[in-house]
């Protein structure tokens, strides 16, 4: 079936497609009621979309009056997307249809954690994407786009400046093997989108997502859209001056270092009493000791939660978001939440503070949502351009057969 990108659709057909992408399979009468379309107009729109393979029947449903109504949903030509989260230790991928139906999840470890080369990371990204495509199989024939979440500031003017360290540096292999646009976005921004569409921040058009783990970062959503700032660097709260007092001079990214889990464990190890046994080697071990009743571990967790609470108070004072969602390996731990709330309440006005409900998959979910929005825009001919969209490299477009929508992969070494 031909790729329907650029297909000229009537406005009623476009409206139907938007509703199906937002709500999933739905009966035709319900569609008509939502859009206030007459039966003839509704029939014409469904027929147009069905001919293009964008809509297909999903069975039927009997209503209260006993009449049977056909359920329609997105068809195979609507395609699917992949969201990829490039973490420090692993790469996660989630494949979704444009209406957010889960198609596949893939995860692979990065070799030599923290010391892998750009090429090694790029190899894992390409491998995960290929595995996701194979897992989806022939059920969906068109890969609309891939969104990759990276722990970097993402903006157009940062691309190509340093081929070994830029935000797109690890995507060269992927771009040569996949004939689809690749969206690049900051990982914390993607996590915020995940919370907005699937998690704790659902139905909140204004909120902030604070990630606290190995590093810290803030995702800001205003009126249901990411606030990225002039340089794409909004939310880089690790750059706040710290420490800041009459006797201390702030250092670059001093707050990022201080609140990161590595520095936390260094402080714990330095002052860990002998009668408490071996000091924790990671934040995960510290929280496990605190849960097991270790007084020293509980004190360190409370102290760190207090520091996070002060940062939350600063975010509230600057942004007044109404809701702050805590995420990351440390931020979403249940032992942190109450102390963060207490400290923030003492320093600023009352604001809802909640933990992420998405766990480790929130960033990939947000990336998939970003890709799905871009993919729908391609079908509708609407400009929904994210901050950075990387086109396929020539090797990928040359590797596809004429008129073929499905990406083709060269033999992977």
Give descriptors for this structure.
5-stranded mixed beta sheet, Arc Repressor Mutant, subunit A, alpha/beta, 413 residues, disordered C terminus, Nucleotidyltransferase, domain 5, 3 domains, 14 helices, globular, 6-stranded mixed beta sheet
What topology does this entry show?
Layout (H helix, E strand, L loop, with lengths): L10 H13 L2 E2 H8 L3 H13 L3 E8 L5 E7 L5 E7 L3 E8 L4 E8 L8 H19 L6 E8 L21 H6 L4 E5 H12 L8 E6 L3 E7 L2 E2 L27 H6 L1 H11 L11 H9 L3 H25 L3 E5 H4 L2 H14 L4 E4 L6 H19 L7 E3 L3 H5 L15
Parallel strand pairs: 4-7, 7-8, 9-12, 12-13
Antiparallel strand pairs: 1-3, 2-3, 4-5, 5-6, 8-14, 9-10, 10-11
Describe the structure.
This protein has helices at 11-23, 28-35, 39-51, 118-136, 172-177, 187-198, 254-259, 261-271, 283-291, 295-319, 328-331, 334-347, 362-380, 394-398; strands at 26-27, 55-62, 68-74, 80-86, 90-97, 102-109, 143-150, 182-186, 207-212, 216-222, 225-226, 323-327, 352-355, 388-390. With 413 residues, it is an alpha/beta fold. The chain is 40% helix and 19% strand. Mean pLDDT is 89; it is low at 402-407 and 409-413. A hairpin with a 5-residue loop joins strand 2 and strand 3 (68-74). The protein folds into three domains: 11-77, Winged helix-like DNA-binding domain superfamily/Winged helix DNA-binding domain (Arc Repressor Mutant, subunit A), CATH 1.10.10.10; 79-187 and 363-398, ATPase, nucleotide binding domain (Nucleotidyltransferase, domain 5, 2-Layer Sandwich), CATH 3.30.420.40; 200-357, ATPase, nucleotide binding domain (Nucleotidyltransferase, domain 5), CATH 3.30.420.40.
